[in-house]
Design goal:
The complex is a heterodimer.
Chain A: H1 2-8, E1 12-15, H2 22-31, E2 34-37, H3 41-53, E3 58-62, H4 64-80, E4 84-90, H5 107-111, E5 122-123, H6 128-145, E6 148-154, H7 155-159, E7 160-162, E8 210-212, H8 227-241, E9 250-253, E10 260-265, H9 268-281, E11 287-291, E12 293-295, H10 300-305, E13 310-315, H11 321-327, E14 335-339, H12 347-355
Parallel strand pairs in A: 1-2, 1-3, 3-4, 4-6, 5-6, 10-11, 10-13, 13-14
Antiparallel strand pairs in A: 5-12, 9-11
Helix pairs in contact in A: 1-6, 3-4, 9-12
Chain B: H1 21-35, E1 43-47, E2 62-65, H2 71-82, E3 89-95, H3 96-101, H4 103-112, E4 116-122, E5 125-126, E6 132-133, H5 139-145, H6 156-163, E7 167-171, H7 177-186, E8 190-196, H8 207-213, E9 218-221, H9 237-240, E10 256-263, H10 268-281, E11 285-291, E12 300-308, E13 322-325, H11 328-334, E14 343-347, H12 353-358, E15 362-365, H13 367-370, H14 376-388, H15 393-400, H16 406-418
Parallel strand pairs in B: 1-2, 1-3, 3-4, 4-8, 7-8, 10-13, 13-14, 14-15
Antiparallel strand pairs in B: 5-6, 7-9, 10-12, 11-12
Helix pairs in contact in B: 1-7, 2-4, 4-6, 10-15, 14-16, 15-16
Classes of the chains: A alpha/beta, B alpha/beta.
């Protein structure tokens, strides 16, 4: 992930160490052209915002306790429309004490992390190949949408090692910043056709730049709830939702005549792959959908779900966070869940639920 | 934005209460910038929340407006990115309310000494929320309002100086603010100017009264150069990765799991890595993961390794074929995983009659008799690889061959064969 971030164009790493994300810190320090050891997670994010406003593309890594401290600053960067990348290495909650135990417990907080439920892109690797490709995708998304982007991984993926053929990694092209041509006055939050304002760095020699986190109009004038300001805030939602296909990544392993779909994400994906293989060896018919972008939810996913009679959702958390985001808290007869905390879900547990 | 001619200010009306001291400081900064012959494009004004945050629309420079108490940190991020360009001046504003929210940010900016200026507009209270006291309310001011008068304020200037600020000044007389700001902005490094400020709504309304209750003016300096941040050349992590090419043949047709249990400092994690590498040298797919207490230097150290002849997806180790236990810490940690199916290799000193009665599959091996504490895990791994004919020991020797202690390790592996 760290190498892919740098190859894609991220150029500053700011972090405060936290288990189980410390290898990210180690590699970030080793690889990024600029590395800043911040004294806490709020400083981390504020420095990142300052760097991003000035034309850098910063990244950080943390776990829930650090993310919790960053939340207000994440909202700030979101409103300012600053490109940056945040890696979350999930660990078992609540609170502390299980820093080296894996989990998939932080999806729900990302679903509402921006006050007002504005969407923020969340990608989640299901294996090492994804980690490589989605890290580059995160940089691309941060630049194209001028936004903070999350990479949601977990202790198990970060802290285990696996034989891996480096030749399978696809080359990454550096994501270049769009060239901005300004005729006349630069209007800092005037959206282009992609609903994103053209970015000029703070401190540039040609045009004065105003950046603000307070509710504002396209001139960055601080306003309350007048139509212009509300239109700008609405755009923060629309830029993602109207271009949601650009943010959607999944793999669907489909057979022709299956009525059952196993849905999963993150660290449970590999157990799901083994479960599917074993079931198919037993002539059971089942398809597998691995979601690699989790938020915002693309409505087209429901077109896929609607073609199945039964859906099984496997994720390493207590209540089924993805399930609740997709289908709500209400139990449904045609939706089965495989949930667990404290240990990875095993292929057998998935198989048992499917065959039950 | 509309810019007044010959000014760093826009034509926007000041939003402050009549008689507010903040306006005086803003005019002083405008004059200071003019006297320094700076250009608007070379100035970045950073602001946060509270009455001091209302300055954002007033400056016809680059501006960035963030969160309450965070302008020193946000400004430091901007200053770090611009540190190579000495023409660029980053000037952050904060109130006395924000200064205690972001106290750590101020100390950190002072410590790092990147070129920027922080202006603290200290009106001795929280003006926007009703005049509550702040951490910078002076004892004399609190005596007037008869509240917490025995609790001293933070002395920001002393704190910033102690943290390494190049230039730290408290100024009470508004007539001195402009010249002080000129000196601060000219200073290459972190400068902080705490300026006493009138608050006609809740605090001191007259300049003489303000000077009377404010803490004494102070100037503290360090002779240290500003920190400049530059990109460093780095090497691809992929290029630095040790590539392992299979050169041996394994005798593995289905998944084999190893659980290695020892004590901190006993090398279980390193040995697991050697074992995993040896598996790759033998053409296998492998995984490896470790578990140990957060305090890494004490207690148990347990590692898992999986071998398979085909791609490994799920990396959990549910029923290890081989459990290798070389210390009491290790035994205590994995005791619940002992079973009659696995091959359990244990140092002979750990084997009891009770354990043997329950697990007749235990292999009792004289490890501590033949090897030192740090070699037990490697000896155990070499023993089981050799006895079970899983992969050639030469693959394990190849795995240790790049380690600085390779000679010792190879000696251990050879001795295992003898024992």
């Amino acid at each position: 992930m760290i190498e892919a971030l740098v190859q894609a164009g991220a150029d500053a790493f700011v972090a405060y160490p936290i288990t189980p994300s410390n290898w990210m810190y180690k590699y970030g320090k080793e690889r990024f052209p600029q590395f800043y050891a911040a004294p806490d997670e709020i400083s981390t994010f504020q420095w990142m915002a300052g760097l991003a406003a000035t034309g850098k593309l910063p990244a950080t890594s943390s776990a829930f306790p650090g993310i919790a401290l960053m939340v207000e600053s994440i909202n700030m960067a979101y409103a300012m429309e600053l490109p940056l990348v945040i890696i979350i290495t999930q660990r078992l909650g609540p609170s502390t004490g299980s820093a080296t135990t894996g989990a998939q417990g932080d999806l729900s907080i990302l679903n509402g992390i921006i006050s007002g439920n504005y969407p923020v892109p969340v990608f989640s690797p299901s294996n090492f190949e994804d980690a490589w490709e989605l890290a580059a995708k995160a940089v691309e998304t941060a630049i194209k949408f001028r936004t903070p982007v999350f990479l949601l991984t977990s202790k198990e993926m970060v802290m285990y090692q696996k034989s891996f053929d480096l030749n399978t990694l696809k080359p990454i092209q550096k994501i270049e910043r769009p060239k901005v041509k300004i005729d006349g006055e630069y209007i800092p939050y005037k959206a282009n056709k992609q609903l994103v304002p053209d970015f000029l760095p703070l401190g540039n020699d040609n045009h004065l730049v105003k950046i603000t986190a307070s509710t504002h109009d396209q001139y960055a004038n601080i306003r309350k709830n007048d139509p212009e300001a509300l239109a700008n805030t609405q755009r923060l939602h629309d830029k993602f939702i109207k271009r949601i296909d650009e943010l959607t990544v999944y793999s669907l392993d489909k057979q022709n005549d299956s009525n059952r779909l196993l849905v999963t994400w993150g660290i449970t994906s590999d157990a799901s792959r083994d479960a599917i293989n074993e079931l198919r060896n037993k002539q059971e018919k089942i398809d597998l959908l691995v979601l690699k972008s989790l938020l915002p939810v693309n409505p087209k996913l429901f077109d896929i779900f609607d073609t199945y009679n039964e859906i099984i959702i496997a994720e390493e958390n207590l209540t089924g966070q993805l399930k609740e985001i997709l289908f709500g808290a209400r139990k449904q007869k045609n939706i089965k869940q495989v949930n667990k905390v404290g240990h990875m879900i095993t292929p057998k547990e998935i198989i048992n639920t499917i065959l039950k | 934005m509309t810019k007044n001619p010959n000014s760093f200010l826009t034509d926007k009306k000041f939003p402050f209460c009549p008689g507010c001291g903040h306006g005086i400081s803003i005019h002083a900064l405008n004059k200071a910038l003019k006297e320094l012959n700076l250009e608007a494009k070379d100035v970045v004004v950073v602001s946060d929340i509270g009455c001091s945050g209302l300055i954002d629309p007033l400056f016809a420079t680059h501006t960035i407006h963030g969160l309450h108490g965070r302008s020193p940190a946000l400004g430091l991020g901007v200053a770090m990115a611009l540190s190579e360009n000495k023409n660029k001046k980053v000037i952050a504003f904060i109130g006395d309310g924000g200064a205690t929210i972001g106290l750590q940010h101020i100390l950190e900016a002072a410590r790092r000494n990147v070129d920027m200026t922080l202006i603290v507009l200290n009106n001795l209270l929280y003006g926007m929320t009703g005049g509550q006291i702040s951490g910078l309310s002076t004892k004399k001011y609190k005596k007037i309002i008869d509240f917490e008068q025995d609790i001293p304020p933070f002395d920001l200037i002393e704190l910033a100086h102690a943290s390494g600020a190049r230039f730290a000044v408290r100024v009470n007389n508004t007539k001195k603010v402009k010249d002080t700001l000129i000196q601060a902005i000219k200073t290459e490094g972190f400068s902080i100017v705490e300026a006493a400020s009138l608050c006609p709504s809740y605090g001191m309304k007259k300049m003489d009264d303000l000077i009377e209750v404010a803490d004494a003016e102070n100037i503290l300096e360090h002779d240290r150069p500003a920190t400049i941040l530059k990109d460093k050349e780095t090497v691809s992590l992929i290029e630095k990765t040790q590539v392992i090419k299979p050169t041996f043949t394994a005798n593995v047709t289905q998944r084999k799991g190893f659980l290695i249990a020892g004590s901190a400092g006993g090398g279980a994690q390193s040995v697991a890595k050697f074992l995993a590498m040896a598996g790759i040298y033998a053409g296998l797919e492998t995984t490896m993961k470790g578990e140990y207490p957060i305090t890494v230097g004490t207690g148990f150290s347990v590692a898992e390794v999986i071998f398979d002849h085909k791609k490994i997806n799920y990396t959990g180790l549910l029923a290890p074929e081989y459990i290798l236990i070389v210390s009491v810490d290790g035994l205590n940690k994995v005791q619940s995983k002992l079973n009659t199916e696995s091959t359990i290799l244990m140092d002979e000193k750990l084997v009891t009659d009770e354990l043997l009665a329950t697990y007749p599959n235990i292999l009792s091996v004289p490890l501590t008799k033949n090897f030192n504490k740090k070699s037990l895990a490697l000896a155990a791994v070499a023993y089981v690889l050799n006895k079970e004919n899983i992969i050639p020991l030469d693959a394990l020797k190849e795995a240790v061959s790049t380690h600085r202690l390779k000679d010792i390790f190879i000696e251990v592996i050879d001795k295992v064969i003898e024992v």
